[in-house]
Amino acid sequence: xxxxxxxxxxxxACVVVVAVCxxxxxxxxxxxSGYAKQFREAASAxxxxxxxxxxxxxxxxxxxxxxxxxxxSLLLAPAAALVSTVxxxxxxxxxxxxGGIWLRLARGFTDLFxxxxxxxxxxxxxxxxxxxxSPLASVLITFLIxxxxxxxxxxxxxxxxxxxLRNSDFILQARASGLHGPRLFLVHVLPNLKPxxxxxxxxxxxxxxxxxxxxxxxxxxxxxPLPSWGSLLRELEGLISFREEPWRLVxxxxxxxxxxxxxxxxxxxxxxx
Amino acid sequence: MNTTGRRALxxxxxxxVLVSLALTGAAFSQSGGELRFCLRSEPKTFDxxxxxxxxxxxIRYLTGGVLVRANRKTQDLxxxxxxxxxxxxxxxxxxxxxRRGITFSDSSPFSSEDVAFTMQRLMxxxxxxxxxxxxxxxxGAVSTKIIAPDLIAIIFPAxxxxxxxxxxQVAIMSAHSPKKEAAVLGPFxxxxxxxxxxxxxxxxxxxxxxxxxxxxxxxxxxxxxxxxSNREVExxxxxxxELDLINVLDSDYFDRLAASSPGLAHDAGASLDSDFMWFNQxxxxxxxxxxxxxxxxxxxxxxxxxxxxxxxxxxxxxxGHAQPAVGPVSPANKFWFNSRLKAEPxxxxxxxxxxxxxxxxxxxxxxxxxxGNAVEFSIVTNAGSKPRERMAVMVQEDLGKIxxxxxxxxxxxxxxIERISQKFNYEAAMLGFRNVDLDxxxxxxxWLSSAENHAWNPQQKSPETAWEAEIDRLxxxxxxxxxxxxxxxxxxxxxxxxxxxxxxxxxxxQNALSAVSSAVEGANPGILSPQTFxxxxxxxxxxxxxxxx
Lengths: 273, 549
Hints:
Number of helices of chain A: 12
CATH architecture of chain A: Orthogonal Bundle
CATH superfamily of the domain at 274-510 in chain B: Dipeptide-binding Protein, Domain 3
CATH architecture of the domain at 274-510 in chain B: Roll
Shape of chain A: elongated
Strand content of chain A: under 5%
Largest sheet of chain A: none
CATH class of the domain at 274-510 in chain B: Alpha Beta
Mean pLDDT of chain B: 91
Oligomer: heterodimer
Structural class of chain A: mainly alpha
Radius of gyration of chain B: 28 Å
CATH topology of the domain at 274-510 in chain B: Dipeptide-binding Protein, domain 3
CATH topology of chain A: MetI-like fold
Strand content of chain B: 15-25%
CATH superfamily of chain A: MetI-like
Number of domains of chain A: 1
Number of strands of chain B: 22
Distance between the termini of chain B: 56 Å
């Protein structure tokens, strides 16, 4: 019975994710005015037939910006999460599997990585980048940075899981059967780390979306006029009453719905991993 | 009348006299209440000669006694501790006739000795006083000559333009009081300071001023200044009636307040502050040579200026609480503004024509220079300033209409300052100028080509262009004469050159927005700092109105 309920929930989640992806891909048709056009006579306007979610502070259609922003964030935040999860699997998973000095070295390295003052390092990264970067390039750079820097916490978790696996009976049995090296890692260790990897992957996505909004402060976020969920969430700063302008909460609701749907798409074992 | 009757009459008379005395006394010692507002940062000092931050400035304004005071409404100079004053024809000497019978808050008497002591301390190079820096006119020491206990002359080594106005910032200290800076001549004195929390000012019992009915000023019993950097919290506390004033409001907050309590939000009109952008013209800057050639062309800069819709910036970004900027002086500066100048109107067609005259051409809705480089540049601005970020996005759209691709880059403030003042690794920048000084001497560090803040091309050994040499000459000329007419002529011409050459593209002058509670009586918000409490000695707080809010 529970399995059926989960199945129904997963179907619903699947429909939601597919619908959100489809709508965002159809942004060119659904919001032909585009995300950058400024309707200055109607700045900060409430929802209307012309602007379904009203306009932002400089008069850009919020519906168009949500659609285009969804397209960017849904494509690039998972991509960045994938990069960071693969790095975490390589560093944490391998170290846990090898154990001994490798595990201690990897843990020391991840601890050091986590304790670095990233704010200052990111300021240095910004200083190294040219100022004249197209908005599209800025998006790619932003999410690449997030992917390359966001692996350490996941690696810490994975190294512990892999370490536990290394000493488990079935790995001992596999070793006793003559299986070792990369084959043992790929055939027995990695599949058993999958639930942890999936959980780390899904957790990283909303974290990266919010981090992207914060990176804007350092000049590293998605450049104007391109929208992203992060930049749309930044609009909520200073919003005192939700009752007065509830439509401004749409990007936040969309983020919650999509992330919840992604979580529901995971199998039961993956969720509880 | 028998004895009992006489006694009854006597009792009645005694009671009548006592009640009358009590009522009269109450009328004369009417409580002005406690005024409450926020400082947005910790005051760095209580020494009036070392003040350099907004919070310390506010405290100095409320506690310090000055010889002359610039009226924040009329902008005229008015006598305070000095009854009268006279500036010599050569602009090197000023003589003050002081009021007599005035004492500091600790009852020590005020005389010309205190003025001499204050000036000597202020000009001591070891003190590193920014207030003192304004008085440094040339090499040589500043001397004082005590002519009489109420008469003093201050002599400078070189002429100082606008000399008398500079004394608006000099709070006189006692030469003899053991309390040092705690002995004050202003309407209030610092009674309590809780670091990180609040500053409590109490009425100075020895304050010399009286109102037209002979009542001693100030009316207020005390002022509580809470240290609060969060503007959201400040607004919420104001709405709850816990605060009486907000000195400076953003347009977003202003509109929200105006919508809910229209009587409490005050728009005093265009302030002295301006927002502007400029192009990097530094010869050694790490930018392509062809871009430097664009940025050094007055035609290019002027065309960019014409292609920006300032009316839209004022209306959209500041909800109408800003005016299109004209030049380095806001129209709010009544004397120094050159009224012959007008804000550059939005004329994209004229901008394109101007660019075409310089060899630029449009092709597939993109602009190219005469050697075929696409016109593209970045504008850096400080992250976290929403109005400025919005202005940059609107400028991006405006310039896109004439085929120019603009990349908006927001940077944290230290990185931005490093780029624009040390490494010169930027193309265009957008920032604001918070002007507190009416006198053009306050802009010397911007306009002189040798100055550090000559933003587009600082610290030039000699002026690189003829128009910069002309500005140098005019700025020095206005600074070296005491004749206001001649000074005005020189600075008017500086403003005209700034409009012709457009080294700064002035965008808007923000309005002075503030909030004043209905419990405060006598408030008259203005554009000059401190906008809401410039007449603090005449304010009262009605406790019952506050309670009813």
